[in-house]
Amino acid sequence: MISVHEAHGIISASVPISKTKRISLSEAAGKVLSAEVVATVDIPNFSQSSMDGYALRYEDKDINLSVIGEMAAGTSCQLVIRPGQATRIFTGAPLPEGADTVVMQEKVKCSGNTLSIQDEQFTSGMNVRAKGSEIKQGETAMVPDTLLTPAAIGFLAGIGCHEVEVYYPPDVTIILTGNELQQPGNPLRFGQVYEANSFQLKAVLHQVGISNIRVRTAEDDPKKLQEVLSAALAESDLVLLNGGVSVGDYDFVVQAAEACGITKKIHKIRQKPGKPLFFGIMGDKMVFGLPGNPSSSLTCFYEYVLPALEQWMRHDSHLKKIKATVTHDYSKPSGLTHFLKAFYQDGKVTPLHAQESFRLHSFARANAFIVLPEESTGCSAGDWVKVHVLPG
Ligand SMILES: Nc1nc2c(c(=O)[nH]1)N[C@H]1C(S)=C(S)[C@@H](COP(=O)(O)OP(=O)(O)OC[C@H]3O[C@@H](n4cnc5c(N)ncnc54)[C@H](O)[C@@H]3O)O[C@H]1N2
Ligand code: MOO
C-alpha cells in the first residue's frame, strides 16, 4: 500500500498530454484555451457614440449649431457634418464624418433645428468610443491557458470570434460491476441494491464540463468484464470502473485490467474511504478502478480522478484547499489518511455523522472533506485542520 501523497505523484506523472480541438465558441464555456486568439478587426469597428445626444465638432461647442439629420445604431447611412453643424445621435451609433464629440441630450438646449451646448464639463472626444479602443486588428485578444468564463466567451463573441481551440475533455466510459445492482425506479428484489455510482459520477463529470460519457455494465464474471473493459478502452480516453476492486471471490477488476494489457500503477492506498483504489494506464488511456461503496467511489473521484482530469484539461483545481477550525472532536487510529465528509462555513468545519463508506446520507449534505493525515489520531474541537471544499 502507498500513501495518498505517493498516489498523487504516480497519477500526475501518468496523465497523458492534453488533446486540443477547435470547437464552436458556444460549446467552449468552462474549457481552457489552447491557442492564442488574435483580433481580426478593430473593435469598435467605427467611432461610436456611448450616449444618446448630439454629435458635433468639439471646436464648435460655443456656437449655435444646426441639426442636419440623425445617426441611429445600426444605420448604414453615413452623414457628413460641416462647421456649425451637428446630428442627432443614439447610443451605439457611428459618429457622422467630421464629428469628434458627443454631447448628452440632457446637456443641450434645442429649439427647432438649432442646438446650443450647456455642459460645463464638456471635453473633446467626450462620449465617443474610439475605433479600436476595445482591441485593434492584429492584437492578441486572449492567451493560451485562459479559462473560458462567461465573460471571456462574451468578449470573444464581441470581437467576432466564433471558434476557439481548447484543451479537450476526455471521452469517459463508466463501467458498473456487480450482479446486485438494480436501476432506481424498479422494485428491489432480495439481495439487490440501487445503482447510485453512475448517477453521482455523471453528475460530477457534467459539473466539471465533461459530457461525453458512456455507461456500460459488466456481470461479476472475469471474461465478461474483460470484454466490456476492452470495448471501453477502444471508445474512451478515461475508464472509471466501479466495484470489484477488492479481494472478494467476485472482484475481477485487477485481473481483467491485466488481461486487457493495462499497466497497473496503483492498487491500494493508505486511506479511508477508498483503500482498494486501482489505477492503471494503457498507452494514453487512464483507467481507475473505483471501490464500489458509493462514498468511496465519489471520494476517490474528487481526490484522484478530478486532479487527473484538471491536469488533462489544464484546468485549475475545483477543490479549494484551505485550513479551518474544526468544531467537534473526531478520533481515528493512525495508519490511514481519512477523508471525512464535513460541512464548511465561515472558517469553521464540522465532521458529519455517518462516515461509513456504504452511506451517502451525510455526503449528500457535505460540502467539504476534512483531511486527517495518516499519522494523526484525530482532531479536537478548535484544532486547525486541512479542508478540501468541494465544487458547489
Ligand atoms: N476482506 C476484505 N474485504 C474488503 C476489503 C478488504 O480490504 N478486505 N476492503 C473493503 C473496502 S475498504 C471497500 S471500499 C470495498 C470495495 O469493494 P469493491 O470495490 O470490490 O466493491 P464491491 O464489493 O463490488 O462493492 C462494494 C459495495 O458497494 C456496492 N456497490 C457497488 N457498485 C455500486 C453502484 N454502482 N451503486 C451502488 N452501490 C454499489 C456493492 O453492492 C457493495 O455493497 O471492499 C471492502 N471489502
Ligand atoms: O475504504 Mo472502503 O472505501 O472504506 O469502504
Automatic annotation (TrEMBL):
Cofactor(s) this protein cannot do without: Mg(2+)
PANTHER family to which the protein is assigned, alphabetical: GEPHYRIN (PTHR10192:SF5), MOLYBDOPTERIN BIOSYNTHESIS PROTEIN (PTHR10192)
Family of this protein: Belongs to the MoeA family.
Keywords of the record: Magnesium, Metal-binding, Molybdenum, Molybdenum cofactor biosynthesis, Transferase
Xref: CDD domains: MoeA
One function term, GO molecular function aspect: molybdopterin molybdotransferase activity
UniProt pathway: Cofactor biosynthesis; molybdopterin biosynthesis
Enzyme kind, highest EC tier: transferase
EC number: 2.10.1.1
All copies of domain MoaB/Mog, residue ranges: 173-311
Reactions accelerated catalytically: adenylyl-molybdopterin + molybdate = Mo-molybdopterin + AMP + H(+)
Protein role: Catalyzes the insertion of molybdate into adenylated molybdopterin with the concomitant release of AMP.
Pfam families referenced in this protein's UniProt entry, alphabetically: MoCF_biosynth, MoeA_C, MoeA_N
Protein name from the UniProt record: Molybdopterin molybdenumtransferase
